[in-house]
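HUMAN: I'm a chemist; might I ask for a sequence paired with its structure tokens?

ASSISTANT:
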Amino acid sequence: MEHENSRIDSVTGLLSYNVLMTKVNEHIQQTLEEHNQKTFTAFLLIDIYRFTYINNIYGFKTGDDLLKFVGKTIKSMLKPTDVIDRVNADTFGIILTNLYDKKDVIEFIDKLKTVFKQQFSINGNAIVISMQIGIALIPEHGIGAEEVYTNADIALSEAKKRSEWNYVFFSYELKAKTIKFLHYKSMLEKAFTEDEFLLYYQPYFYTNGLCIAGFEALTRWKSKEHGIIPPMHFIPILEETGLIMKLETWLINQICKDLKRINKTKFFIDKMMPASINISPISFKHEDIYEKITKIVSWHKKGSKSSECGLSKQINIEITESTFLLEDPNKIIASLEQLKTSGFKISIDDFGTGYSSFSYLKDLPIAYLKIDISFVRHILDDKKSRSITKTIIELAHNLEMKTIAEGVETKEQFELLKSFGCDIIQGFWLAKPMPIDELIVFIGKWEEEKVKYLQ
């Protein structure tokens, strides 16, 4: 992280990072020398929640004036022995002195929350200021300024995974978790260069007749060091680091290659089967998803004899309900509308487990609702799961959408879902995820194989 070398921050007029670190070292030394000290010191890193969003909406001048206001306001709340500095774009470092208990830190944060809970007028703009805070105690969490800063930063990173006004005290368990995270991040970066990702496809089927309706593309990571690593262990890291966008670029390219290969087989002369891909909410936040997907698909259409088949019509975009918790849901809806206009189908994955807003649902260009496996798994023995599943199916049909039930593992589940009017099923009962070569063989044999499932 880069810091200013001057004594005074050019925007807020506060002390520089280097001066702050000197003062942290002074407090550490003082505490170590006074063995019977009843008080302690805390170092806080305070990050302004969604500051980038504020800058983008109201402009940099308003952003700078907001920083000045925040710095001045916090400084007025401090004791004469306390210290405040702006350590980077939207983060302040604070030394709180003469504390008797961790509760004193929490009381200070509560005071911050009380002071900033109201709207403030910054250059005529009504803005609510929120914060996220990481805390390291001196000298418990370090005997050097850089160590204390690093540990507070680890705590801040954890706080920023949560909502506004969250604060986290540093712990060595948290540091171990962070070290593990960084190790996995390094491994994942290496996985891209060494081509360690694989693509598997799991077919899904129409409930009426069990004809193949399409297949979902699922990423697998075959690490040379650790073997197959489940998606639940690496997808969250990809999302947190932003590498998920790189994986999705690879994924879309690979699907286009596989679809062109499938379209050349005898099984698809008269029909096109779609492939579903998951797009992370993180990608909608940081990329123009419409431009990215259409650019890749257009490139694969060039010079292809199967371009008439329309690759865009063979790709279903799956999103989760949490996508609409982002800062600008209207922008996301506009991107989805563009994708629909270009021929792509849109699905909401794991429906019913997250943020279900009917106000958005009625306006979304959605073709499919995917019923989460947690409902399907208990559909036979739990009345509430059964009722929720039936309600989702009825809701989807009333909104002119189709439903896909995930995790179907028995014929009994299939029969009940079919009686509810579910359109499509997916699960181990009919097919597990498989590589592209196995998928092509599977499709070729399915018309004969499906007979035993219909008996």
In short: DSSP finds 17 helices and 16 strands in the chain.
